[in-house]
Amino acid sequence: MTTEEQEIHPTISIEREMRKSYLDYAMSVIIGRALPDVRDGLKPVHRRALFAMRELSVFFNRPYVKSARIVGDVIGKYHPHGDTAAYDTIVRMAQDFSMRYPLVDGQGNFGSMDGDSPAAMRYTEARMTKIDRDIVSDLEKDTVDFGPNYDNSMTEPLVMPSKIPNLLVNGSSGIAVGMATNIPPHNLTEVMNGLIAMIDNSNITVHELIEIITGPDFPKGAFICGRAGIREAYETGRGSILMRSRTHVETIKGSKREAIIVTEIPFQQNKATLVSKIALLVKEKKINAIAEVRDESDRHGERIVIELKKDEIADVVINQLYKMTPLQRSFGIIFLAIVNNKPEVLNLKQILEYFILHRKVIVYRRTAFELRKAEEKAHLLEGLKIAITNLDEVVELIKSSDNPAAAKAELIGRFNLSDIQSQSILDMRLQRLTGLERDKIIQDYKDIIAEINRLQEILGDENLVMKIIRDEFIEIRDTYGDERRTEIIDAVDEILPEDMITQEDMAVTVTHTGYIKRNPVSIYRSQKRGGKGVLGVKNIEEDFVSNLYVASTHDTFLFFTNHGKIFWRKVYQLPLAGRTARGKAIVNLLNLAEDEKVAAILPVADLQNEKITKTILMVTRLGRVKKTSLEEFIKPLKRGKKALTINEDDEIISAHILTGDDTIFLFSKYGSSIHFHESDVRTMGRTAAGVRGIRLKENDYVVGSIVIDSDSSILTVTENGYGKRSPVADYRIQKRGGLGIMAIKTSERNGYVVGAMQVDDDSEVMLIADSGKMIRMPMSNVRVIGRTTQGVGLINLADDERVVAMDLVAPEEESDDESEGEFQELQRSDE
Predict the structure, then answer these.
(1) Catalytic annotation, residues
(2) What class of enzyme is it (predicted)?
């Protein structure tokens, strides 16, 4: 058996090896590619690109060179990851819409906000910008550590000795393994002022820094809405801000139409994609108010023109665009950077502290380097000073020596010089022996001694170091600082669906069997007085329109169910159906239980405002009443809310809006009624059970309730088809909770009471029998009689037929010439 065959290889756990290899790969990506260093704010590829440009001497005041030349040096010497990666980095550093303070001065096509690709690197040229001078300055003074490049053939800086807090002023973004960074750009003037404030007060808080560094500052401006996200990010290292485009409205020349003009869009948004998105929304009819959209941007700035159709409201369209397009976008802030070769999430103060610490190291190392150079120079000048002081003897000694080596040895022995000093004397030109030059050497020696003392004093006094850093910050601020471009405005309210719906009057119809729909008021044509009107819903057997409201699309409908719950629907959420269609069943709009049904519908124009003065009165079958402020119902839930607590054998039969000075009627099955003022019912919370409204006899229950809104008459109807109209004045006001007074006599002739309602001569009422028979009658045919009378026949019924329901019939939609097409008979539901 050979030696190779006898060799035993140790067993390696594949799990341990995979874990080790993956961690090595992850750290390589985190440290070497994806995340910036907290000190100079640069990733390795950015640092290598700037270093390669420095080595090529393509400074801001030198001629441009081909980008391909720079890329060649970057990938050939420092960054072996392909020319595309290197060129893309140079391109981005040259784009003024990507970098707040560009680090590359590009000449040629370096791409655009429309997503256009840059020209090939053989066509473009580049050089460093002026600000780069203060990123790479003092690199030759041993201020930072250098490390070997990828093939150990040369060295490269591990960090730049930057005077610019690039991590904040230009930001950074990158996705590593298991982590990501997303740092927005900031205004350099504010950041430098923040650094100066930290030097002046090391105990400064993040809250105080926010007063100086007010928030991110994006290259193309736009708005930041709200400060809460900024504050959270600065305090914790993570937060989210809302970016919003800058827009204004112009009137199109020669037209009454308006146009929305967009001049600044959120950071990192593609302008061409934005315009295409708006055009697509128009094409798909998701936004119907836009007539045309076009891009009029030029070298002077961005300008997107969105022309609106006639009579469209610009604010509504702008809200739609904010909700559906990149005109409004969030920016998630993550202050993640490399600190001491480890990734760390930092708050604002920590970022500034690390940069100041970096500058302290740079100043110390630079001062130490300059001290070494000054001491070396002083050492040489000290030798030259000895030489010119003993000039004749030195000349004679050199002349008498056999060769330079012997002369050098003689000088060292005779004047106690060092090797370097003696060599400097031998190298000295004869012109240095003139009187003027000898005086200059002596003066140079005095100056260098003073410089050495100054440098030593700096190294021994941290306050002097901090003063130097502070002065440098002031110089950077005054040299490169500019005004903010991004304006921070107060937080905007959430864009609700109604913010994207144009306010428009709608005719909302509800049928007796529970169907609801809406139509624009404008579809009902204007007619002369006395016209036949326009049919709002096609007549369907056993159904008719019982209620007709005119309400804005932003108004709210409250639906009360017999189980004591309340549901909300905005008018724009109600089904839009044809003019003659019934619409959609209400039960299909709400999340109702199996045996639950809608007992009452209340339209409210403005729930937020009306909550102050108005209340809701709910009436149950067993005679309980409850008054609750509208304020209790301003926060809707999809599953509904409890409006009141009721017993299992009880249910809501009606609900009304009260204005504060109303009187209330309750009518029972046995013909009793009670009339009381709403002040008798105190306002209660949402879950309260209410109080007794009327005292009922055994087996009696409430069949109707009325909130009196005028002095018109009360119609009471019994199950055998009899009824009567009586004046409101016949029903005296009592205290709630009593037995009340007789409204109509219930007898074998009349039967039990079916219902009651307030009517006038213009009202029309539908009576419905259990057989399906219906009769529609105008109240002008029913005369007003006293309360104590038995009533008159309203409908002829067979012996086995009974009236089971009654309801008002909504008037036909009608108007005249003088009203300019608006409804005269329809009143807003909340009036």
Answers:
(1) 123
(2) isomerase
